[in-house]
Design a protein that fits this description.
The chain has three domains: 89 residues, Phosphorylase Kinase, domain 1, CATH 3.30.200.20; 184 residues, Transferase(Phosphotransferase) domain 1 (Transferase(Phosphotransferase), domain 1, Orthogonal Bundle); 27 residues. It is an alpha+beta fold. Helix 3 runs antiparallel to helix 4. Strand 3 and strand 4 form a beta hairpin. The strands form three sheets. The protein has a six-stranded antiparallel beta sheet, covered by helices on one side. Strands 7-9-10 form a three-stranded antiparallel beta sheet. 32% of the residues are buried. It is 36% helix and 18% strand.
């Protein structure tokens, strides 16, 4: 059971907690004041130990958290909150980040009472893509793994911030392993099928591409996308975006559908490729995710005229022999 810290609790003799801003299965997120830098607000993500693990395993998780949090602290991008500190205290781990003011995109969608304007959403998508491209360029690449409207903030200075590093994973390219910074499974509506396996399933940059595609679908349609399990059982349950919202241009709907393909190999291979598709610079057929489309009837007849003619002659002969 998650037990939250009380308001006015001071951590590391520096951070005074003011209130809880979020809570999940492994801990809480607090808004806090930095007592060493008066006026600075920060967000502190807390990770509580898994009580089912042995003390030795908990110690290993703590060491892993501190090692990998140090890599997150090296990230620096205008569309990501800056990680400024990390520490362990009273058997819990803490990640200190910039506090991001403003509303998240889920709140803006709810207030709008209908789908958001395509132009506005695409402008936001450009900033999200820039942040993801930066993460994916790291060595080793960093995956977010929990992209959704509620984890994207729109700040008072009109900037988009991709928040909540709770599911960030560092991807080791040498053996395709992924290492979890904070355990978690993502949010079902935006999670591709390969992520349902938790840490045993292989995830890569295309996992973030799926989640971003699902997020854009939700923002432009005002309908949360069906989860991957439902789509696996019934592929037609996902309605084409430009049918749900006729104001969405065909190439934008096609790009988002491409990003949300069930199998990773059928999605854009990079976030930049997805960006190009959204901007109409490439189509699915220009990328690796193209599935062969069935030929039109005229094309099929022309391509197989000899076989069709031979079959017709044999059929006529068979009928003639039967009659006579």
């Amino acid at each position: 059971m998650i037990t939250s810290l009380q308001n006015d609790t001071i951590l590391r003799e520096r951070y005074r907690l003011t209130n809880i801003v979020g809570q999940g299965g492994m801990g809480s997120i607090y808004r806090a004041e930095d007592l060493r830098l008066p006026g600075r607000l920060c967000a502190i993500k807390e990770v509580q130990p898994d009580p089912s693990l042995s003390p030795e395993m908990q110690a290993q998780e703590q060491a892993q958290f501190l090692q990998e949090a140090s890599i997150l602290a090296q990230l620096d991008h205008p569309n990501l909150p800056k990680v400024s500190d990390y520490f362990s205290e009273n058997g819990r781990e803490y990640l200190v980040m910039d506090y991001v003011p403003g509303q998240d995109l889920k709140q803006l969608l709810d207030e709008n009472e209908g789908p958001l304007d395509e132009e506005t959403v695409l402008a936001w998508a450009e900033q999200i893509i820039e942040a993801l491209a930066y993460l994916h360029r790291q060595d080793p690449p960093v995956l977010h793994r929990d992209i959704k409207p509620a984890n994207i903030k729109f700040t008072p200075d009109q900037r988009i911030k991709l928040v909540d590093f709770g599911l960030v994973k560092l991807m080791a390219p040498d053996d395709l392993r992924t290492i979890t910074v904070v355990q978690g499974r993502g949010t079902a509506l935006y999670t591709p099928l390969e992520q349902y396996g938790g840490d045993s399933g292989h995830t890569d940059a295309r996992t973030d591409i799926y989640a971003l595609g699902a997020t854009l679908y939700h923002l432009m349609s005002d309908y949360p996308p069906p989860d991957a399990k439902a789509r696996f059982l019934n592929p037609r349950v996902l309605k084409p975006l430009d049918k749900v919202n006729k104001a969405v241009r065909a190439h934008v709907a096609e790009a988002i559908e491409w990003a949300m393909e069930m199998h990773p190999d059928e999605r854009p291979s990079t976030i930049v490729q997805f960006q190009q598709a959204l901007n109409g610079k490439i189509t699915r057929g220009d990328g690796h995710g193209k599935r062969p489309s069935p030929p039109r009837l005229g094309q099929a007849l022309r391509a197989n005229w000899l076989a069709i003619a031979s079959a017709s002659i044999l059929f006529i002969l068979a009928v003639a022999l039967t009659i006579f």
